[in-house]
Amino acid sequence: MFKTEEMEINLGPQHPSTHGVLRVKLHLDGETITRCTPMIGYLHRGVEKICENKTFFQGQVWTDRTDYVASVSNNLGWAEGVEKLFGITVPRRAHYIRTMLTELNRITSHLLWLGTHALDIGAMTVFLYAFREREEILSIFEAFCGARLTTTAFRIGGLREDLPPGLEKLVRAFQARFLDCIDEYETLLTENRIWKKRTIGVALLNAEDAIALGVTGPVLRAAGSNYDIRKAFPYASYAEMDFEVATQTAADTYARYLVRLEEMRQAHRIINQCLDGLPEGPVMAKLPKVLKSEVNEVYHAIEAPKGELGYYFVGEKGGQNPYRMHIRAPSFINLQALSKMVVGRLLADVIAAIGTLDVVLGEVDR
């Protein structure tokens, strides 16, 4: 009479809360998850192989199409990786502008995460509030380079052009009100009893397991680790910036929410420093029209909004394009942790777990 048997179901690939074309195969005992297998590959486009058949200049464009929510960060990783391969020195003013735009991009990425994650769990208003500020930053990107989402914001050696007239005023206007906006999000969510019940103690991932799985970014820092590439291996102009690494210790969905809120506050702090200390001078290094590499290999990593984003290049003598190129995509690595987070939990917690990982399937599948 009370006999039960395990059931296998598919979550996705069309389900809106899978944050892209992700299929999750779940084994359930009642509503309790006994096994979870993420099924990826529905969006594969072969970006790495395409970039091996493009010049170093042409490959930059393809980085926009991986994590399209953080295209500015992707642009920075590619540009600095190529600059490391060729030994190119970037002007200090370009470093400052790159840092400012990358931190604005960190905010846009976290705002998209906050709005969609809250929507997944049932909070509609936060989504509207978060997109209100996100649109303002996208307008800043549009004023800088003509694009809102797939920006191709930087160039190997620096920037295509200096800041256009009026851009600094736009950034300062946004900065003047953004901290109050974060307080608004907190008013809606931080002490909301429904939000806390759906996030506290849900999708636990301690630091030991996170490190073993290669998980980085806010998910790792919410487990007590203070590993942040901006501090550990500074790049761009982060060595000159005064900011704190946001950490929590609870290692659950609620802790990751608090970490990302604090990261937005720290990004705001860095942007102000970039504006106030912006040096004079050129924004582009002197480069030949054709870059020809030697036999060499480099790995360059940056702290993208989702974690460690790394670019691995292998050059060949006289080659105008990478002989080999690989992207260490944080969404792809972090997705490994999903099974660890949800086995033994209820079906509804899978939605919260996918949201708290903040994956973008364009980056997972590449």
Keywords:
mainly alpha, Cytochrome-c3 Hydrogenase, chain B, 3-stranded antiparallel beta sheet, 15 helices, globular
Quickly give the CATH architecture: Orthogonal Bundle
Question: What is the β-strand count?
Answer: 6
**pLDDT averaged residue by residue:** 93
Number of helices: 15
What is the C-alpha radius of gyration, as a whole number of Å?
21 Å
- Biggest sheet, strands in spatial order? 1-2-3
- The figure for the number of domains is 1
Indicate the CATH topology.
Cytochrome-c3 Hydrogenase, chain B
Low-confidence segments, given as residue ranges, are none
Shape: globular
Beta-strand residue fraction = 5-15%
| Main sheet makeup | 3 strands, antiparallel
Structural class comes to mainly alpha
What is the string of SSEs from the N terminus onward?
EEEHHHHHHHHHHHEEEHHHH
In the CATH scheme, the class would be: Mainly Alpha
CATH superfamily: Cytochrome-c3 Hydrogenase, chain B
Percentage of helical residues? Answer: 40-55%
| Through-space gap between termini | 49 Å
What does this structure look like?
With 366 residues, the chain is mainly alpha-helical. Helix 2 packs antiparallel against helix 3 (71-86), helix 4 (92-121) runs antiparallel to helix 11 and helix 4 (92-121) packs antiparallel against helix 14. It has helices spanning 47-51, 56-63, 71-86, 92-121, 124-145, 167-189, 193-199, 207-213, 218-221, 229-232, 253-276, 330-335, 338-342, 347-357, 361-365, and strands spanning 7-11, 23-29, 32-39, 296-304, 307-315, 324-328. The radius of gyration is 21 Å and the shape is globular. It has a 3-stranded antiparallel sheet. A 3-stranded antiparallel sheet has the order 4-5-6. It is built from 15 helices and 6 strands. The protein has a single domain (45-326, 338-347), classed as Cytochrome-c3 Hydrogenase, chain B (Orthogonal Bundle). It is 48% helix and 12% strand. A hairpin with an 8-residue loop joins strand 5 and strand 6. The mean pLDDT is 93.
